[in-house]
C-alpha cells in the first residue's frame, strides 16, 4: 500500500498539474478541457474515497467547505426538483461545482501537510513564469491569437481567450509570488522572477481594472513589508537591501507592463460594458429570492424577463448574478466566504497571499465574470485552501501516529527528502 | 461510510454527466442525422439535441418524426422559446396552422423579446393575415426597437401603403420613430419620410440632427421647398442648428451670413466647394462677425464655384450685400456672384466680375429679380480667369453677407 505521505504528494501533484493544464488550455472554457478536468477531479475524489474505505486516514475539515456545500446543495436541489430556468444548464453547473468542491477538499487535505503546502507557492511561481512568458512571446509574434491559433471575435491574451481572464490570473497569483520573493527562502530568485513576469504581463494585457488591482496589491504588500522591516530595523540590514531590491524589480516590471498596457489593442476597442447588468441581475434576484433561477441559468432567466438581449461583454456583476441564480443560498455562500476569510487567515502569508488575492479577484468579478473560466476558479480555490490550512496541523492517526510532522521536518532539515523522512520516522 | 458512498456517487455522477455531455455536444455539432440520433441517445434530457434532430429530420422530409422530436424538445425546455418556434415552423409546413399559431403564441408568452413576435408576424405574413402582421410587427419593434430595420423591411416587401405601415406597424414611441425615420432615409423612401416627419420631428434630438438635415437636402432635391424650409426652421427653433429660422418675421433669407459657424454644406447652410489650388479657412470668430478666407495658389482652374447657398426665394427683387477684402488680387479679380434658379438652372443674375479691394474691407451690393415661379434659388460665388488677366496667386475674404428684399438700388460692381 502506498504511503499516506506519498499518496498526498501524488494527489497534490495531480491537482497542480490539473490547474496548469486548465490554465494552458484556454482557461478550460472549452468543453473538451472542462470535461477532462471534471472527469479527472471526480476520479481523484473517487480514489480518495475508496482509499478511505481500505485504509482510514485523517480527514481535514474546514469551515470553508460550508459555503461550497451551500452552493452545491442549492444547485443539487434546483437540478433534482427542476427548479431552474434551464435545468440542463443547472445540471452541468452542478457537476462542475461538485468537481470544484472535490478540488477544494483535496487541496485542503494535501495542503494540511506543511511539506506539501510549501510546494504550492513554488508551483505557482512556475505557473506564473510559464503563462507570463507565453503571453509575452505570443503578444510579440502572434498578436491577437490564443495559443498561436487565430481567435476571431475574441480578445485573447496569453493562454486565455479574454484578456480580463489574464488580468484576474495575475491578481490571484501576484500576491503569493510577491510573498515568496520577499520571504527569506531559497525560492527568492524564483519568486522574484515569477512576480516580475506576472506583474509585467498582467499589467500589459490592457485591463484597467486589472492594473488598478495589481497596483493595490503591490502597495499593500509594500506597506506590510515596510512595517515588518521597520520592526526589525538595525538588526537585519541585509534583509532590507534584499527586500528593497526585490520590490524595486517588481515595481519596475509593473510600471513597464502598465505603460505597454496603455497601448494594448483592447484599449482602443474596449469591451462594451452594459451598465444595466447589476440592475438586471438584482431584479432577477428580487423575483426569485428563495431558490433563485438556477445555477448557470442566468441567460435563460434573463431572456424570460427582459425583451432586449444583454450586451455581449456585459457579464459583470458576478456576485449579484450568483445571487440571482442561487437565491438566498447565493447570499449565504458569499457572506460565509467573505466572513470566514479574515477569521481563518492567521499568518501574513495567508492574509496577503490568499485573502487579499481573493478579495482583489472578487472586486474584479463586479466588472467581469471571470468565474466562467474553470482555470481561474481552481487557482482561487487553491488560494482558499492556503487560507483554510493556515495553522492546521495534520492529525496523524494511522500507521504514522507515532511520529509528528515536526519529526519529519527535522529529517528534512537534515537534508533528507520529506518522503524519506516519513519512511525513516515510520521505521523508528 | 455514508459520506464515502455519497462522495463516490457524486464522483460517478460528475464523470457520467461530463462525458455524456461532451459526447452529446460533439455529436450535436456534427449535425448529421446519425450523429444527432446518437446525441439524443446519450443525452435524452437535452432539449438542444432533440431540437437539432427535429430540424434535421424536417430537412430530410421525415415530417412525423420531426414533429415528435421538436415536441420532445419543447417538453424538455418548457421555458425556452426556440423549440416552440421550430415546432411551429414544422407544424405550419404540415399545414397544421392552428397548432403552429398556438406554439408561436406560447413562445411569445414565454419570452418578452423580439424573436418570437417577429416569427409570429412572419407566420401571419405567409398566411396573408395583414392585420395580424401589422400587430405583431408593432409588438416586435416595441420589444426591441434596435431590430426595427429587420421588421420594417418585411412591411416594405409587402408593398403596403406607407401610411398603413406607419400607423399600424410602427409604434409611436420615440426610439421607434427615430429608427424608422433613419431606416426610411437609408432605403430612400422620401414620400414615407414626409409622412413620418411629424412623428420624428416631435422627438428629434441632437443625435438626429444629421439625419434631419440630410432629409432637408432630399426635400430640396425633390422640389419640396416649403417642407424643406419648415423642417429646417424646426431644427433651428429647437436649437439643433445654430441659426435663426428662414423667412421668419425678420425676413431672413440667408443662413450663417456672418460665418459665425463652420459651413456644414447641408440644407440651407453654405456649401464650400473644394478645388485644386484653392484653400479656404474660417478664422476664429472675433467680435460679432466671422469671415471666410480663400487663398488662390495661382494654379486654380477657371470657371469654378467657390461658395454657394440655397435660398428659399419668392418672386421679387432682392439685394445682396457683402464686405470684400483682397490681397494680391488683380483689379479685375475674376470673382463674381451668380444667382440661378435651383431647379431650372436659369440665371437670375448673371456673372459680373468684382473689382479688387486691396487691403481694406469694402462694402458691395448687387440686386436681382426673381421671376414669377421661382421657388428656390442658389447664390454662387464663381471664379473665372480671363485671358488678359494677370495670372498670379492671391487671397480674398468675405464677411457680413446679407440678402433682403430690395431696399436700395444696385451699386455698380467694381
Describe the structure.
The complex is a heterodimer of chains A (428) and B (414). With 428 residues, chain A is mostly helical. Chain A is built from 19 helices and 2 strands. Chain A has helices at 4-24, 31-54, 65-80, 87-111, 114-117, 119-141, 163-182, 188-204, 208-231, 237-262, 265-268, 277-287, 298-305, 318-326, 328-344, 348-364, 374-388, 405-413, 418-427, and strands spanning 145-146, 149-150. In chain A, strands 1-2 form a two-stranded antiparallel ribbon. In chain A, α2 (31-54) crosses α4, α8 runs antiparallel to α9 (208-231) and α9 runs antiparallel to α16. Chain A is globular and about 65 Å long. Chain B is an alpha+beta fold and 414 residues long. Chain B has helices at 2-30, 33-42, 47-59, 63-76, 82-93, 97-110, 114-127, 130-143, 148-157, 162-169, 174-187, 190-203, 209-222, 225-237, and strands at 271-272, 278-281, 291-296, 304-311, 316-327, 332-341, 347-355, 362-370, 377-383, 394-405. In chain B, a hairpin with a 5-residue loop joins β6 and β7. In chain B, α1 (2-30) runs antiparallel to α2 (33-42), α4 (63-76) packs antiparallel against α5 and α6 runs antiparallel to α7 (114-127). Chain B is elongated, with a radius of gyration of 34 Å. Residues 408-414 of chain B have low confidence and may be disordered. The interface between A and B is medium-sized, with 34 and 34 residues.
Amino acid at each position: 500500500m502506498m504511503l499516506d505521505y506519498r499518496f498526498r504528494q501524488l494527489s497534490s501533484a495531480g491537482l497542480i498539474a490539473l490547474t496548469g493544464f486548465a490554465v494552458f488550455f484556454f482557461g478550460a472554457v472549452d468543453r473538451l478541457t472542462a470535461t477532462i478536468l471534471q472527469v479527472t477531479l471526480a476520479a481523484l475524489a473517487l480514489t480518495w474515497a475508496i482509499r478511505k474505505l481500505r485504509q482510514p486516514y485523517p480527514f481535514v475539515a474546514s469551515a470553508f467547505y460550508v459555503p461550497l456545500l451551500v452552493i452545491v446543495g442549492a444547485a443539487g436541489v434546483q437540478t433534482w426538483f427542476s427548479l431552474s430556468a434551464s435545468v440542463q444548464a443547472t445540471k452541468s453547473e452542478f457537476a462542475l461545482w461538485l468537481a470544484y468542491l472535490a478540488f477544494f477538499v483535496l487541496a485542503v487535505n494535501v495542503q494540511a501537510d506543511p511539506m506539501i503546502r510549501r510546494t504550492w507557492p513554488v508551483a505557482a511561481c512556475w505557473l506564473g513564469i510559464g503563462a507570463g512568458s507565453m503571453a509575452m512571446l505570443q503578444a510579440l509574434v502572434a498578436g491577437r491569437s490564443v495559443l498561436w491559433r487565430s481567435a476571431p471575435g475574441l480578445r485573447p491574451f496569453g493562454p486565455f481567450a479574454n484578456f480580463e481572464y489574464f488580468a484576474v490570473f495575475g491578481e490571484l497569483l501576484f500576491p503569493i509570488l510577491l510573498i515568496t520573493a520577499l520571504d527569506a527562502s531559497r525560492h527568492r530568485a524564483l519568486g522574484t522572477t515569477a512576480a516580475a513576469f506576472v506583474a509585467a504581463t498582467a499589467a500589459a494585457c490592457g485591463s484597467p481594472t486589472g492594473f488598478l488591482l495589481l497596483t493595490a496589491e503591490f502597495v499593500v504588500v509594500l506597506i506590510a513589508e515596510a512595517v515588518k522591516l521597520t520592526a526589525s530595523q538595525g538588526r537585519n540590514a541585509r534583509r532590507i537591501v534584499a527586500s528593497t531590491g526585490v520590490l524595486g524589480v517588481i515595481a519596475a516590471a509593473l510600471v513597464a507592463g502598465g505603460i505597454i498596457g496603455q497601448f494594448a489593442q483592447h484599449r482602443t476597442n474596449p469591451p462594451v460594458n452594459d451598465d444595466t447588468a447589476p440592475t438586471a441581475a438584482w431584479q432577477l434576484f428580487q423575483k426569485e429570492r428563495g431558490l433563485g433561477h438556477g445555477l448557470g441559468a442566468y441567460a435563460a432567466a434573463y431572456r424570460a424577463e427582459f425583451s432586449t438581449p444583454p450586451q455581449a461583454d456585459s457579464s459583470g456583476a458576478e456576485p449579484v448574478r450568483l445571487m440571482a441564480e442561487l437565491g438566498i443560498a447565493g447570499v449565504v455562500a458569499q457572506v460565509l466566504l467573505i466572513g470566514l476569510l479574515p477569521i481563518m487567515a492567521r499568518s501574513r502569508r495567508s492574509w496577503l497571499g490568499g485573502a487579499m488575492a481573493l478579495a482583489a479577484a472578487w472586486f474584479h468579478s463586479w466588472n467581469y465574470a471571470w468565474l466562467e473560466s474553470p482555470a481561474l476558479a481552481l487557482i482561487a480555490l487553491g488560494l482558499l485552501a492556503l487560507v483554510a490550512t493556515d495553522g492546521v496541523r495534520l492529525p496523524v492517526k494511522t500507521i504514522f501516529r507515532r511520529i509528528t510532522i515536526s519529526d519529519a521536518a527535522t529529517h528534512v532539515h537534515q537534508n533528507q527528502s520529506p518522503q524519506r523522512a516519513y519512511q525513516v520516522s515510520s521505521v523508528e | 461510510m455514508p459520506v464515502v458512498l455519497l462522495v463516490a456517487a457524486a464522483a460517478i455522477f460528475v464523470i457520467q454527466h461530463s462525458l455524456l455531455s461532451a459526447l452529446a455536444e460533439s455529436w450535436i455539432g456534427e449535425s448529421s442525422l446519425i450523429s444527432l440520433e446518437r446525441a439524443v441517445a446519450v443525452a435524452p434530457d437535452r432539449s438542444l439535441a432533440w431540437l437539432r434532430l427535429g430540424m434535421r429530420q424536417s430537412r430530410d422530409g421525415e415530417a412525423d418524426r420531426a414533429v415528435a422530436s421538436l415536441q420532445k424538445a419543447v417538453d424538455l425546455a418548457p421555458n425556452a422559446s426556440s423549440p416552440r418556434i421550430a415546432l411551429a415552423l414544422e407544424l405550419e409546413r404540415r399545414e397544421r396552422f392552428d397548432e403552429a399559431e398556438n406554439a408561436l403564441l406560447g413562445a411569445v408568452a414565454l419570452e418578452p423579446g423580439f424573436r418570437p413576435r417577429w416569427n409570429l408576424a412572419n407566420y401571419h405574413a405567409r398566411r396573408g393575415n395583414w392585420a395580424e402582421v401589422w400587430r405583431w410587427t408593432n409588438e416586435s419593434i416595441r420589444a426591441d426597437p434596435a431590430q426595427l430595420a429587420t421588421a420594417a423591411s418585411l412591411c416594405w416587401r409587402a408593398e403596403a401603403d406607407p401610411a398603413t405601415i406607419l400607423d399600424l406597424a410602427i409604434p409611436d414611441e420615440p426610439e421607434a420613430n427615430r429608427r424608422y425615420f433613419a431606416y426610411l432615409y437609408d432605403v430612400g423612401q422620401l414620400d414615407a419620410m414626409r409622412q413620418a416627419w411629424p412623428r420624428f420631428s416631435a422627438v428629434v434630438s441632437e443625435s438626429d440632427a444629421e439625419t434631419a438635415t440630410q432629409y432637408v437636402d432630399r426635400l430640396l432635391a425633390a422640389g419640396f421647398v416649403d417642407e424643406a424650409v419648415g423642417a429646417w426652421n424646426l431644427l433651428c427653433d429647437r436649437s439643433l442648428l445654430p441659426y435663426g429660422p428662414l423667412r421668419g418675421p425678420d425676413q431672413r433669407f440667408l443662413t450663417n451670413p456672418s460665418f459665425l459657424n463652420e459651413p456644414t454644406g447641408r440644407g440651407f447652410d453654405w456649401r464650400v466647394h473644394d478645388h485644386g489650388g484653392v484653400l479656404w479657412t474660417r478664422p476664429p470668430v472675433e467680435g460679432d462677425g466671422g469671415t471666410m478666407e480663400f487663398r488662390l495658389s495661382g494654379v486654380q482652374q477657371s470657371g469654378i464655384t467657390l461658395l454657394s447657398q440655397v435660398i428659399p426665394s419668392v418672386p421679387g427683387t432682392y439685394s445682396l450685400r457683402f464686405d470684400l477684402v483682397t490681397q494680391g488680387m488683380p483689379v479685375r479679380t475674376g470673382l463674381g456672384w451668380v444667382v440661378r434658379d435651383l431647379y431650372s438652372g436659369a440665371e437670375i443674375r448673371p456673372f459680373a466680375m468684382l473689382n479688387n479691394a486691396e487691403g481694406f474691407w469694402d462694402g458691395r451690393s448687387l440686386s436681382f429679380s426673381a421671376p414669377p415661379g421661382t421657388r428656390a434659388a442658389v447664390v454662387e460665388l464663381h471664379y473665372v480667369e480671363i485671358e488678359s488677366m494677370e495670372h498670379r496667386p492671391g487671397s480674398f475674404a468675405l464677411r457680413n453677407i446679407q440678402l433682403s428684399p430690395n431696399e436700395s438700388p444696385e451699386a455698380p460692381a467694381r
